Amino acid sequence: MGSALRKERRSFTLSRESVEYLELEQKRRRAPSASSVLDEILRERQQEYERQKLEASMVSYYDSLTDEEMAEDRAWGALGESQISRE
Questions:
Q1: How far is residue 57's CA from residue 63's CA, in Å, rounded to a whole number?
Q2: Residue-wise pLDDT tens digits, 24-63
Q3: Which residues, 6+ apart, have CB-to-CB distance to 68 below 8 Å?
Q4: DSSP state for residue 7 in the 8-state scheme
Q5: Position 10 in a domain
Q6: What is the pTM of this model?
Q7: What is the tally of structural domains in the chain?
Q8: 10/47 Cα distance (integer angstroms)
Q9: Residue 78 within a domain
Q10: What is the span of the domain harbouring residue 68?
Q11: H-helix segments, the chain
């Protein structure tokens, strides 16, 4: 997974198990370096975190709707479906 983002050199101390895991993942993913694998893992984790935040936000929004607002949402949804089925 290449990236046009600017990279920043850092140094981290990792457990032997973590280093072995990165090396295993490097081979499995056919990645150019363990560093690139670590970057991918962190990006994947960040994307998952952002997805969870969005999901929680949507759940909170729909949980806050009144019965009247839910009925209105359903009506708009039904209208949208009827327009799509015409096409």
A1: 10
A2: 999 999 999 999 999 999 999 999 999 999 999 999 999 9
A3: none
A4: P
A5: no
A6: 0.72
A7: 1
A8: 22
A9: yes
A10: 16-86
A11: 16-29, 34-64, 67-86
CB burial of residue 5 (10 Å; 0-12, 13-18, 19+): exposed
The DSSP call for residue 6 is P
Question: Tokens 């997974």 appear where?
Answer: 1
Q: Residue 13 is encoded by which pair of tokens?
A: 């101390």
Q: Which residues of 29-68 are buried (b: 16+ CB within 10 A; e: fewer)?
A: eebeebebbbbbeeeeeeeeeeeeeeeeeeeeeeeeeeee
Percent of the chain with pLDDT over 70: 94
CA distance 20 to 15: 9
Q: Are 33 and 26 in contact (CB under 8 A)?
A: yes
Written as six digits, the tokens of 67 are: 């019965």
